Amino acid sequence: MRFGACTWLFDDMPIARVVERLANLGYQGLELKGDLASYQAATLRPLLRDLGLPVLSITPGNDDLAYPDPHIRRQALDSYRLLLEFAYDLGCPIISCHGAVGRIRPLTSQCEEYAYLRQGVARLADEAQAAGVRIVMEALNRYESHLLNTAAQSRAFVEELNHPAVGILLDAYHMNIEEASPAEAIRLAGDRLFLFHVADSNRAGLGRGHTDFHAQFAALRSIGYSGDVIVECTASGPDPFTPVKGEGWRGELELYLKESLDSLRSHLAS
């Protein structure tokens, strides 16, 4: 089990500085924001190699595989295909997938847009497997997405696809909102849980909210989870869609990242 952090948390900081900071904090890898206009695999590989930080996962842009307009869905599919190629070039094992973050209701019907999402992921699954990359469906809370909000919904989606390259991403922060028992949600995801995100109940660093991480890590051990754990906390402040929270946010973020890593190490040791 390796511990990484999202590069998204650092906003527009140059990727070389982000990687260096995470390495100095003691992280073992990173989740890369899938902004393919900002960097290329050929320039990232030596940087990551020199600092010993692999890319554990890649998070996509806000591409909408469930949008009713077929032209927009095709664009989203093309973007994911580029992301798969990028992941292959970096030796990254996982890319995440979700609906457009911030779209909290269907434009047509829930059933229709769910079917669009399923069709899009089904088209990508074989290509992902051929590239040695797995796709994880991220369960987001209802204030960020209308498609997959819970472990049960994500498990049902994955079982409908029935493809070995498609699994589940659960996030402690989102589970705090959606799940009656996050530990039971982890057990329900079971062997289809390919990636785990952590932030406390208030999306701050671990230990600054009321999330029972002891119970969640016990649940992870009970299902034999050996995947990576990605920290996705943010500094305090409004607007969940940006890490920039006002004066001093970078210092607060790095404090949270340090505290979170210390907490994760203690849970791993217990």
Please describe what this structure looks like:
This protein is an alpha/beta fold. The chain has a single domain (3-269), classed as Alpha-Beta Barrel (TIM Barrel), CATH 3.20.20. Helices cover 45% and strands 14% of the residues. It has helices at residues 15-25, 41-51, 70-90, 110-130, 151-161, 172-178, 182-189, 213-222, 249-269; strands at 3-6, 29-33, 55-59, 94-97, 134-138, 166-171, 193-198, 229-231. The longest helix is centred in the N-terminal third of the chain and has 21 residues, at 70-90. The model has no long low-confidence stretch (mean pLDDT 96).
In short:
The chain is an alpha/beta fold. Helix content is 45%, strand content 14%. It has one domain: Divalent-metal-dependent TIM barrel enzymes (TIM Barrel, Alpha-Beta Barrel), CATH 3.20.20.150.
CATH superfamily grouping: Divalent-metal-dependent TIM barrel enzymes
Global Rg: 17 Å
Largest sheet: 8 strands, parallel
The number of distinct β-strands equals: 8
Question: In one word, what is the shape?
Answer: globular
In sequence order, what are the helices and strands, one letter per element?
EHEHEHEHEHEHHEHEH
Q: Which structural class fits the helix and strand makeup?
A: alpha/beta
Q: Report how far the terminal alpha carbons are from each other.
A: 14 Å
Tell me the CATH architecture. Answer: Alpha-Beta Barrel
How many distinct folded domains?
1
Strand order of the largest sheet: 3-2-1-8-7-6-5-4
CATH fold group: TIM Barrel
Estimated helix fraction: 40-55%
Q: DSSP helix count?
A: 9
Any low-confidence stretches, pLDDT <50, length ≥5?
none
Query: Can you give the mean pLDDT?
Result: 96
